[in-house]
Amino acid sequence: MNKFLKQIINLIVVFFVTISCAQSKMHLDKDKAIEERITLLMDQMTLDEKVGQMNQYNGSWDFTGPLPESGSEEEKYEHIKKGWVGSMLSVRGTDKVRAVQKIAVEETRLGIPIIFGFDVIHGYKTLSPIPLAEAASWDLEAIKNSARVAADEASAAGLNWTFGPNVDISNDARWGRIMEGAGEDTYLGVKVAKARVTGFQGTDLSANNTIASCAKHFAAYGFAEAGLEYNSAEMGTSKLYNVVLPPFKAAVDAGVRTFMNSFNTLNGVPATGDTFLQRDILKGAWNFNGYVVSDWASIREMVVHGYAADGADASAKAVTAGSDMDMESHLYVKELVKLVEDGTVDEKLIDDAVRRILRVKFELGLFDDPYKYCDAEREKAVTGSEAMNDAVLDMAKKSIVLLKNDGNILPLKKSGQRIALIGALAADKNSPLGSWRIAADDNTAVSVLEGMQEYKGNTLVYEKGTDVSLGQQLFVQEVKINSEDYSGFDAAKKAASEADVVVMVLGEVGFQSGEARSRTELGLPGNQQELLEAVFEINKNVVLVLNNGRPLALPWAAENVPAIVEAWQLGTQTGNAVAQVLYGDYNPSGKLPVSFPRSVGQCPIYYNHLRTGRPVNSQDNVFWSHYIDSQKTPLYPFGYGLSYTSFKYENLKLNKSQYTKGETIELSVEVTNTGNLDGKEVVQLYINDPVASIVRPVKELKGFELVELKKGETKTVKFILTDAELGFYNNNGDYLVEAGKFNVMIGGQSDKGLTGQFEIE
Ligand code: BGC
Description:
Blueprint: H1 3-25, H2 34-42, H3 47-53, E1 55-58, H4 73-82, E2 87-89, H5 94-107, E3 115-118, H6 131-135, H7 140-156, E4 161-162, H8 186-201, E5 214-218, H9 237-253, E6 258-261, E7 265-266, E8 269-270, H10 275-285, E9 291-293, H11 301-305, H12 311-321, E10 326-327, H13 332-341, H14 347-364, H15 376-382, H16 386-399, E11 401-405, E12 418-422, H17 424-427, H18 448-453, E13 459-463, E14 469-470, E15 480-481, H19 489-497, E16 501-507, H20 528-538, E17 542-547, H21 555-560, E18 563-566, H22 574-582, E19 647-654, E20 658-659, E21 665-673, E22 679-688, E23 700-709, E24 714-721, H23 723-726, E25 728-729, E26 735-736, E27 740-749, E28 752-760
Parallel strand pairs: 1-2, 1-10, 2-3, 3-4, 5-6, 6-9, 12-13, 12-16, 16-17, 17-18, 20-28
Antiparallel strand pairs: 7-8, 11-18, 14-15, 19-21, 21-24, 22-23, 22-27, 25-26, 27-28
Helix pairs in contact: 2-14, 3-13, 3-14, 4-5, 7-8, 7-15, 7-16, 8-9, 12-13, 16-22, 19-20
Bound molecules: beta-D-glucopyranose.
Beta-D-glucopyranose is lined by residues 64-65, 89, 119, 163, 216, 295-296, 515.
């Protein structure tokens, strides 16, 4: 070949390389629309690379489920280098995230950045109260702010995606994950879902302090039979549409970018393989254009369920049903390419999934700056900052519910008192962090003991009384409960005998609720009930502070102990929040987001149940809906909670009594603070549709307002009802507003209030 020809060939090669380089970078052009950028990128992707985007691995140093047989650290790194990993979970900290991102961006052919997910459930390192507790605040601004600060801290640690919020409705206290949701009520659940999604995502997803959120677990996970973790859920269309789906729909409406499916079967179909849920409803009727991640290994578990023959079959079923990303099943990466090549899976399904995943990555701005969440300076400044602690303290105080306060034993006097503080949980700095606190360092909560020590005017004596658990408390292992050691009882009794007031902090340790923590008993674990009774025998001035991740059934305490404070697991600032409430520096305003049963046998118990044909004992015989050994009402109803002041409700008014369909109904009520302290009240509105084509609940929350009232002050609280509140879904999934009478009730809890009526023509 002569020199001239060689030069020509060289020039041609350079020309094509330049063109293809320019092409390969075109998706990085910020001025182009996201959909076009996705197309430009996808046009260059091989099938392997596409499937890679659908693969999520866990950083092995933190796992939240059983580890698969494959998946060594080396294999994961190899796969990242090949561009076979679209997402990692539980890799956290700017240094680690940066290191992994660097491989994806600099060593793979196309340099597609990884999206980093993490369970930011109630905070990252600085923890807010558990989600159920936050819901007890009924303070949507506070809940949104709690998610916002959590996003701030998590994003500063390199993360850009949280596996939250959990929007599962649950009315079964046996189920450990009831702690992660907003409780039993769908209306409250809808509001809280929206607050959390908007808190995490903010108004600009591409900002470096907002993160993509994930509505989970889709769907009906909270209705696991018998409250048994991972168990099946069975329910009809009407219940699914009226109770379970609305918080998910609210999350979509609020712009949630991802969904997680769930471990359970719903009516016999594993949610992960459920086309009706994921394709027909979520991506069809609701037009959701983000992506769905499986739950941990839930694709692989379809084989164990008996829904798929093997890993290949499970992968085909999952992708067909609309599960876009495989969390830790290690199956998509292994099977999907073959399944497309042999014609079992249509490549269009892969393209759809990849487009969804890339869309969120583009929206986060990861293609513009893959290291945007990896600012070590910012991480240092934000993590555990004073502002962060102030925010979680604020949320913690608002989450406390005063259940009983006979004789106004609370608030405690600030001086001249001898106070005995009893219970291992009072000095525990770990347990108040609750479950789902993977990034928080052990023992970083302010204990109740420390919080109370801040008040110096009284003499404070601490006695453990008894241990609740033995050994280390770990996320991945069973908690060992102490039932045998009574050695601290005598010292506790002595301290009680010498005290003016006894504060007992009793309940569950942090890891007694959360995933895989179902219980069949709802009393105080171990020998704490015996300790409570022994101490009460000696000194009746007991204030019981409860720590728990679920409703507890404590009939003896409710009857005997003069004051009970529901303090859940309140996160990093637990002790300060509890002390400020006990001493009256914060007047409690929380209301239960879930019914507290009298006994475990009542579960599931919820205020908005359907009417039976025999609800009341109208005749003198046994043939009515009741228990022969217990009242059927809850110990503490949904919406219940006291204050150090009192409120009076008067003058429930409606703007008229007859309406035509489509009209808005205006209601108002006067609420007066009749006590001696300023306070806040959650004014709640319930409706009941007494005759309908599908039997409606005895009562349904359809509005609430958190109002602040100075002592003596009266405010008029207004509500508006529209078709959105008055209708319901029937068994075909159609939304109906039916003519007829409606009952309405406004009050401070679900079982009491002023009543009225109106009619829709
Ligand atoms: C849980 C999810 C969680 C995931 C990742 C699973 O075991 O069910 O809620 O997001 O683990 O940690």
